[in-house]
Amino acid sequence: MNNLANPNRTFEKTLVLIFLVLPPLGGLMVLYNALQDPPKFWATVGFLAYIALVVGAHIKWVRPVFRRFPWVSSYKELSERTNRIKQRFPKAARHAWTQRILRSSYRVGFTLLLAPGFYGLWALHKHHFLWFIAGYAVAGFGVTVGYHRIGTHPSFKAPAWLKGVLLAMGSMAMQGPASEWLKKHSKHHAFGETTADPHSPYVFDETKRGMFMEQVNSFLHSFMMWAFREPSLARPKGMPIEAWKEHLLANGPDPKTFKYRDEDAEYWEVRDDAGKVIVTTETLIKKRWGKLVDTIVQIEQDPVVRFVSNPIVYLGLLVISVAAPYWLGGISIWESLARVCFLNWVTFGVNSVCHLWGEQPFVTPDNSRNNAVIEILALGEGGHNTHHKSEIWARHGVFAWQFDPAAVFIQTLGLFGLAKEIKLPTRYQIVRSWIQWRQREPEMQGYTEKRRERLRRRSLAKA
Fold first, then answer.
1. What single DSSP character describes residue 332?
2. Is 153 exposed, middle or buried (0-12, 13-18, 19+ CB in 10 A)?
3. Are 25 and 186 in contact (CB under 8 A)?
4. Labelling 222: which of 5, 79, 190, 382 has CA 20 to 30 A away?
5. Does the pTM exceed 0.85?
6. What is the pLDDT of residues 408-418, one digit of tens each?
7. Would you say the C-alpha torsion 348, 349, 353, 354 has a positive or negative sign?
């Protein structure tokens, strides 16, 4: 595959250099200009620190409390349910309403606590701050909703024109053409945390140098260096799609060099009770690779993806993403590049951070995690373990305590009839998974034990 992919690498390598070199340079230029006005710079730092402290306090102390409730009903549903039981169980009905009202009150209070920080940033930077937020939202939702939740995974359906708009928004993040992004992310899901994963944070080397690489170099690889190393999955110019498909099928991962984490062995080699191998790793690799090739070919044949990924269209979208803020808002090119840098680094954090640190409520064939910080910064993409549990769920923040504005965006499109067949987990799936997690994780078990102790003390006090 590499030999045929090489002719297509020039354009891709150029884009990689653009989004890895220019955006950080833009950030440094913005920082340099900000330092020319020290009072304004330090006031900005202060407001950002205030926002970080409020959010950090929420994650540290409040979010764990919310984990006791995997599902929170809407007021309409709560009213219907409590009306049926309030005669027989009035205390239970009152308790349900109290918990729901307290939760809503906390959300309002949390928003009010954040408001001074955001107001301060707006007061200091006016339209520059608004353009940053707007640009971040457009490109951010373009990546998570366009590239990811409808482009790579069919988590909902939308008209072709809307899908094109969402992919165009994602293109403005400067993370490469949609076609290449979708294909490589599909490969990540097919071979997560193996030697065939485009951006695995694990190195399968037992030497001392290998241990060092796993802790440092492998993180850098999963964060951004993979973009330099991963072969292109673009179809060579002039090659018929059937011939290209046959070529891909013949050039899958080599079973002789294929490695995976010891913890994931059961997913890559099936044994019977006696320990005899009944399905080999080679067979599973071939099966997954065949399915991945079918997905890659479907992406290649998608007319919307093909149009938005056209080099001329893609470069035009990049120019618009920088030129529009410049001409309409007086936003410098460096400011736009700084916004691109921040968004890209957050996206890179999903690939790396969310495979190392965070919660793991679902059992998956990898070490994917739900990370609270990435959830907020990446507009919901931090629910990575949930996403690896079921790729087609349109909501990654399925539990009541998670933050997923991208899912809200999709459901809002649904209210206007623009998003249909939105795939969401059932309440049964969510609550069952939460119960299993509580039984599996010591921290979750602690919540149950503390609750039992409180109930025991109340009973003794009443007696």
1. -
2. buried
3. no
4. 5
5. yes
6. 999 999 999 99
7. negative
